[in-house]
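Comment thread on ticket #2218

A.B. wrote:
> Attaching the input chain for the structure job we discussed in standup.
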Amino acid sequence: MKVTVLYFWRINRQSIPAAFFRMALDRRSLKRSTGVSFAKLLGCGKGESFTPSDADPRRWAILITIDESALVKFDNSALVKRWRKKSTSEFRVMLDAISVHGEWSKRKPFEISAAKDFSGKVVAITRARIAWRQTLRFWRAVPPVTSALHVAPGLIKAIGIGEAPIGLQGTFSIWESAAAVRAFAYQGAAHQGAIAATKEHNWYSEELFGRFAVREVRGTLE
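C.D. wrote:
> Ran it. Output below, let me know if you need it in another format.
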């Protein structure tokens, strides 16, 4: 059985140059890891504005889809231990997909494995490849959605994630329930306006939106 796992590390300042180096160097070894069928090394944002200026060089992440039987080995791998050694804190969350729409790097990496009526805490992951001609229009639309997100009922934490600061954008957010995610996504005026603008102007050349049941959490997302 596959499980989706995200690691978030907060690192000390002197390790920032090494983190950029590892982002380039770890790609091949990550994809070769036993049981891993999908993997991404991710930079992170502070979750304040979800714009390029929001980038947080002290927070980094790895997302994997992995055979559940191989997770212990991965968790104790040299790759993870290197990041752990640089970090001041680690947050790991295990997820089971409830629903996923779209593609990531021309792939459908998440297998549906959780019930649609799951009643616990939920993670929402978004990821988009922004069409370069629509970049400025996209960034102008971000502030009202961000403001609405910060006060959304049921939101626990939200930060930006992405393979690159510009062009490949995503969000990771934790919610009290699936109902809270749906209320923000489909009832909020700001988000509805962004959805309409996306369809009208074709902001994205690729996009994905997924909801995941939180199976297990280790550590704190600071």
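A.B. wrote:
> Thanks. Noting for the ticket: The chain has one domain: 2-219.
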